[in-house]
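Issue 218. Parser rejects a valid record. Input:
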Amino acid sequence: MTKILPFSDFVTEKKKNGLWANIHAKRKRGEKPAKPGDEDYPDEKAWKAAQESANEDHEVSMSGAQLEDIIKNATELRAKIGDMEMDIPAWCQDHISQAQNFISQANVGFNEK
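Output the parser choked on:
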């Protein structure tokens, strides 16, 4: 029997989160923003860099995060389905087929600049 490796085994490059990602994560956890003088308050250089990057286009980081989420969820779903043949609900089969089709089209159609 062929062993199926999780998608995450093929992801080798991990990118550190930036200042805005950390700020948004903190908000999501329900924590209050850091105040000047707090240990986790960003220094002037980090704050200026974050302000400049706020005006930039973030399509690559957004797409990267979405692809990471797809990999995570696909890996979890693959583990839930397992290798033994069984009935999978039609809606689930349809979602898997559409997702595979969309990701395949994006991969084939995307050309680096």
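Fixed in the parser; the record now loads. The chain has a mean pLDDT of 81.
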